[in-house]
Amino acid sequence: MSKHRDVTQERRLVQCLLIAGVALFLAIFLVLPLVIVFVEAFRNGVRTYFEALTDPESLAAIRLTLLVAAIAVPANLLFGIAASWAIAKFDFHGKSVLNTLIDLPFSVSPVISGLIYVLLFGAQGVLGPWLEAHGVQIIFAVPGIVLATIFVTFPFVARELIPLMQQQGAREEEMALSLGASGFKTFLLVTLPNIKWGLLYGVLLCNARAMGEFGAVSVVSGHIRGVTNTMPLHVEILYNEYSFAAAFAVASLLAMLALITLVMKSLLEWRFGAELAARKRHP
Amino acid sequence: MDLRIVNLVKAFDRFPALHGVSLDIRSGELVALLGPSGSGKTTLLRLIAGLEFPTSGEIWFGNENASALSVRARNIGFVFQSYALFRHMTVLDNIAFGLKVRPMASRPAKSAIRKRALDLLELVQLPGIAERFPSQLSGGQRQRVALARALAIEPRVLLLDEPFGALDAQVRRDLRRWLREIHDQTGHTTVFVTHDQEEALELADRIVVMSSGRIEQIGNPDEVYDEPASAFVYGFIGDSSSLPVAVEDDAVMLEGRRLGLHGNGCRAGQAVLCFRPQDVEFVTSSEAVAGRVKTVRRVLNVRRAELEVGRARHTVEIDLGQDVEARRGTELSFRPRRFKLFPLDQQGT
User: pTM of the prediction?
Assistant: First the structure.
């Protein structure tokens, strides 16, 4: 460290105290719980761990979670691109309203997000009788879980892309069109390559949330074992039945998903950050 | 390709940007749209390109009414001030883009596209950078690549929006000369937007001076400089000063005093007297513009004095010869050798 301190730097002692405070806080609230998940999962040995995971009900929960993510993430990918395209590249009336609406799922409690679908599609709901008459079941079935998950996760991709697209402006698109490219080719050859890292980042966050969502899904799922239980719901059920080892085993999968997401996110930030810096050099 | 613009009106959210602009551009001409920011010059360029559509009026490319054609169908070459190069593509891919995206039927063979792109790089004097990315180029190089990309599609008209606006002074001067050479070689009808009078005067065959969404004057560089059609053009192009005067019996009066200048047929009444700092002669007669020196500054090759004139303390600028002694407070009397009078109501003030 140089003799002359940076004007915005605190004194050494203050620095140490602050860093120690943050480290302690992180250890208690984040690292310790994470460690406990794995410790508890393996408490009764590796065999019990894998038995808990290969239990038919657990497998069904894993399958359902993957299925829901496989539908919700691509849906939000398309929606996110469309919404950010509309907001960043066009001027229209009600643009700010749309922009605010996209954030709605972040500001509403997940339980409410689930409840609105019950009120809309449930047996006592607005569309319930009509759906029942036509033999369509949404609530307490897979479609309801997918809908709730899409609702809760739909800001992730759009929120990531809107600032990026706004910053990039529409110049390159105008250029491509003036050079004779069709709208589709312009999107494919110019827009998409410019947003690919941001898009991947948004999809990653969206996926993590889609697999981990509890509140909204809990309301619409009905907790039918082996049928409408996702992994987070399954963890809760196992835990309530005092099957701690099994509960933590399934939980450890979710924890691993979180860790993988974190690592990929860091990798992307590293990669994406370099691109952002390059963009500033080349406006 | 002749370009004809007929009575073009453009309003953004009821805010008018162009009020009925008409303009004929001959094939092969290099035309500058010159004006301050907000004069509507960029709007006019974007309308010609098809990046905006007019509220009313028509745009003709030769015998074809292009008013309703999309930017894609107009086949124009556009160059932005910010280059807008595709940052994830190499220089070669950037230049080849317009050819690569053509429908199968009209797309040249891969090798032909590559050859054409390399030829264009040669034309813009940047051989050997084909595989680089835009972020690895200097501003001047990027703008050359942007022009090569626009030329690749054999555009009917070349449109440049402040092409050198983001570059430093030395590079600008070089590129100006270079653009003129390219234009003379390729002969494209070219329209460029600039707020830099020097650029317009040096580069253009004809200059369209714009202000507040209207055309103030169209003429070759000598015409707009020597024969400005309005006080605005006089003030905008080249250095000039103006004084509010009255014309009576063909004599020019300032605050009731004769200035020893003829009205040259200017209608009697209130008028604006415009002249350039270098076009003055110092006189001893009392029939002259009399003022007190406020400051003397060095402006490159001349000394320029700022004078306060009359009771209203109008500020005018005049150049001092080497033999004229002047410092703060010196009284000087002069007459413009060359000047123009613009009757006031013509200015709309």
Answer: 0.79
